[in-house]
């Protein structure tokens, strides 16, 4: 039986005017579903997914590339990280578009921040620090520094991080470093729980599924590494998944833990089944590197979308594996 | 008067004889004249009493013998000649069956059979009399009188009769189905059909053999001569398959442990007359499934009998090639089975080696036979012991090297592959210092089968099958059910596996291929530049991929650089192991030729005959020319134009009625259309839009330059000599060009030139060349207008036909034969269609 061809994108959003480094959906709740995109020129576009037009363009990073976007408790509290070494908090309520607060990170690298909700109204934000290998963790919105995590060995620049918390224990942090190793940090103890060399090249991106205790990481090579944490938070490398072309910019596990998507330097988005990392689809549309990915958080799983932002200045939206 | 005792006895016997004659004469007279029922019955009873199985009779055995010897045939003949007599209608059916029919069924069966067959032959049919005789013959066969007949002649002292009688009897016995079929036509009985009769005959033979064995055990003498003759004659009449289907299994199981049976079988075959032995042996080897069985049945016949030796070691292996591999296995296994027969196997191996390695055989025998000989050779080599191999090593090596050379020289792929496979197998069997030959060839069923011949089939299973003597299906049954159950359990696992994984169906990911870094070139001149100067494999590959499209898109630029680019492409080498290099290059060259036919064909055809090209290059040129010609001859498919072309007329009419003077015609046409009933079914298609044939004006440019220099051999290229591969392709290409030039004005000249050209090489030794020639002839006959064809062929018509008929009959290559037949048909057709009276006269 011939497999059907991969679907075309549902629609594409153009007009960002520069490569798209960051994407974030805000579709939960009754309001208009929105997609935030951060561009290379430092602007953040707010796309209305009903009209499929940019509602607003926010400019707060003074030309520095926006590499990470997220929202605190509602769509109106946007938080953005730029390569101007600042993390900005925005107030978008009632048509405003003001930067309410900024955090100076001092990082010149490409490492994206990671946000973890600790309780009502409090978050932990992990961001790369001034020193290349340093990860700083602060409390939001109070900006109170919690700790600074610097590995003892020479692992090189920190490339990507992910904060999470197991129920009944302190927050944990996964970090990928320039020499290809992954480290699990216990944030409260400020100590490395385990470390594993997952790639021969720098770790470009990672995503972790706390419920399954499994994660994937990508690099500039022709394979994805997959690994898991055992009960003592020890990293165990599992089998790698071969890719056709090298280079992964971002990896995203969908909220329902069914699929994982990779943004490839070969212009393609690849979709894998999350359980066994079985290749499922190759989405071809872009004409340049895909830089960012995001799964939407629509209330109805059937509306859930996959967005991919590319260096060709377009965002493609895909509806894939979301029936039942 | 005092007479000696002997004389007295003799006289007594004579008087008895006279008695019998008188009483039989009386009975017959009664039957002729009497109308009384009782008298008739009595006479018949009297006659019946002379037959030996009448217990209560007062007839002495001497009288019975006398009756059987002298009067039985006459009596039966009399009965048949009076079959329509009135008294026969008067007696009851039961009486008739008992008395009248019984006379036929209880007497000596040989005489009865002869009389019956004669009767059936002479009585006019269809009639009740004939039906009656046929039913008696049927019962004669059913009551196994045949076994008694054959046995009566095998018993220690069989009746010594004249050879003529014996021949006649054999003829009747064996040809019974033919005789009855000829006489009875559609009313023939199923029992007389060969499918029924010969198995019956075989069963009767088995009965007789069984009796013979019994008699031998009892110490009595028997002669197997008559049985052997019956068997031989039945086989030579072409019924060996039917006979041995019954005989072989029983013989196989009986000879398994019984020495008497074995001896009887050997004697049976030894007694078979020389002239019939071959068909008996071929029938036997085909019916037997294992060499051991053949060995048991045949014994060392191959050593004792010259004919058997010839058939088994020569004819079956080297002269015929119709048998299955199983038969080869049986024959060679039989030769290898016994120490005394082993020299025969070596002798066979030598002959096979010679046949396989002979270059002339490779060229002139049909491929099927070569395959057959190769199979036999491999089987033979597999049977050799290591010591024998060592002894024969130098011969085998010579055979292998010579044979491989002649096979690899061939222009037929299958022959080459055959050489490679056999060479590999031989080398692996000989084990020359651990070195083995290894070729790269595509595995297909044929090569797999050949390779499998070196490993002997499993030994354990088949003897069981042999002795159980059960039909194959019964034994085979448990196996399929097992086989069916195994995959089920096996397939359950992956299924559950799939279920455990996300039940998400994957999409087609075949388009997910490696990306190349560089951008493809946009201009033709860039490509040219890259080909000439670049060392970057990626750029060369991209240019190669792009060049065909660029040529097609920019026809004018392509024309400017066509010859130069062709030159570059032709000389280009696959330096970087580019994927699909050959097809990409070819496609580019074809596109160039199509875009600028005159210049590029000029270049290619000149280069074809120039120095310093490899075979590959010349073949490439021919291929490019052929493909370009093909592409040019096809109409350009432009879908947009076609779909628009369907309705323009009607729309014009409805929009501007009466304005244009042309429109009245369309109006009329529409009216006619609406009033006409069309009987054809289906959607009426729009007529095909005529487009000019792009090939016709340039066909000559493709064709004639290729014919210019073929007979001028050069240092590196000798078309009429060793380069027959190119010659074959050249002729084939010319034939294709001819075929494509149908309806072109230049076709006549082309055809004339082509026929002249191929005439010289029509008996070429290489089959590829001959195929090409026949293809060219075929396409000429197809493409040339028939009247000009007749004019051209006027002088050579008879010769051509004789040549074609000759090829159709005797060429070793099957393709050649088919093509020749096709050409003949085409020739006849064009003779008939384009006919004028003179041609008619010629044909008759």
TrEMBL record, chain A:
InterPro entries: WD40/YVTN_repeat-like_dom_sf (IPR015943), WD40_repeat_dom_sf (IPR036322), WD40_rpt (IPR001680). WD repeats lie at residues 196-237, 283-324. Keywords: Repeat, WD repeat. This is Guanine nucleotide-binding protein subunit beta-like protein 1. It holds the Pfam family WD40. It comes from Umbra pygmaea. The keyword Repeat applies. It comes from the Eukaryota.
From TrEMBL, chain B:
It is found in: Cytoplasm; Membrane; Nucleus. The keyword Cytoplasm applies. GO terms for cellular component: cytoplasm; membrane; nucleus. It comes from the Eukaryota. Residues 521-629 form the Telomere length regulation protein conserved domain. It holds the Pfam family Telomere_reg-2. Keywords: Cytoplasm, Membrane, Nucleus. This is Telomere length regulation protein TEL2 homolog. It comes from Umbra pygmaea (Eastern mudminnow).
